[in-house]
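We were asked to recover a plausible sequence for a given structure. The inputs and outputs are reproduced exactly as logged, with field labels preserved.

PROBLEM: sequence recovery
POSITIONS: 211
GIVEN STRUCTURE:
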């Protein structure tokens, strides 16, 4: 059995990750490629329960180190119970956010070192990395308008952080992509969804060959 491919979508809020993940799954299925679409934090019952703890706006919230541990714990369950078994069945896994979100949000923007975030990932998820990480980048104005339209002005605990925090996240994603050009592809997400998807399909074909 050939192991499936692991594709992650990354980027700030409102970049269009979920939209593009759904379009990619439909395209792969239409080509006879079995795939699983999933998300972080979440994807398994345990990880979805941790998601509610992380993103709910009740209570006093989490210290940055506790937050990083909770994301790593959710990811560990997700990797163990859903991602690795699907890859071993030969299915492609399309994941809406993965460890690079922890590196950008809890690391660069939240104050933890990249080494510490990667150490948690090593313990929790055996340092699993995607075969390809698609970083969707949009202008801050587009991100804000899309997220606002979706949230109707009630963002989750992390989405509601200030513009400076989200600017640090965007800069961190950009730096991660520059540092690992073989794993990352940068996608301009400012255009319409179909145009963005065309770029993603072209990127997959040049990365993996004909699908
Ligand atoms: N987080 C973290 O801190 N550390 C971690 O390790 C992980 C996550 C894994 C997860 O929230 C939060 O957790 C997130 C990071 C943090 N907080 N923030 N910021 P989430 O997954 O629920 O939220 P999100 O990742 O930010 O997703 P999002 O805002 O839903 O963005 P998206 O998936 O990139 O966008 P979308 O849902 O596809 O589209 C948003 C809207 O724009 C929607 O109405 C679409 O119809 C529309 N859209 C999408 N594409 C287009 C185009 N191309 N043109 C026009 N309109 C479009």
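RECOVERED SEQUENCE:
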């Amino acid at each position: 059995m050939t192991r499936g491919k692991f594709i992650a979508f990354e980027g700030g809020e409102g970049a269009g990750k979920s939209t593009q993940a759904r379009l990619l799954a439909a395209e792969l299925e239409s080509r006879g490629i079995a795939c699983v679409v999933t998300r972080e934090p979440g994807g398994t019952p345990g990880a979805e329960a941790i998601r509610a703890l992380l993103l709910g706006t009740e209570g006093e919230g989490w210290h940055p180190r506790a937050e990083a541990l909770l994301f790593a714990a959710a990811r560990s369950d997700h990797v163990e119970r859903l991602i690795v078994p699907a890859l071993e069945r030969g299915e492609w896994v399309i994941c809406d956010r993965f460890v690079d979100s922890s590196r950008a949000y809890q690391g660069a923007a939240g104050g933890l070192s990249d080494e510490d975030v990667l150490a948690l990932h090593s313990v929790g998820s055996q340092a699993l990395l995607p075969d390809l990480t698609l970083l969707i980048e949009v202008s801050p104005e587009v991100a804000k308008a899309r997220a606002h339209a979706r949230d109707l002005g009630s963002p989750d605990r992390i989405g509601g952080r200030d513009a400076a925090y989200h600017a640090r996240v965007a800069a961190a994603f950009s730096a991660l992509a520059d540092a690992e050009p073989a794993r990352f592809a940068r996608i301009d997400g400012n255009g319409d969804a179909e145009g963005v998807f065309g770029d993603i399909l072209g990127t997959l074909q040049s990365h993996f060959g004909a699908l």
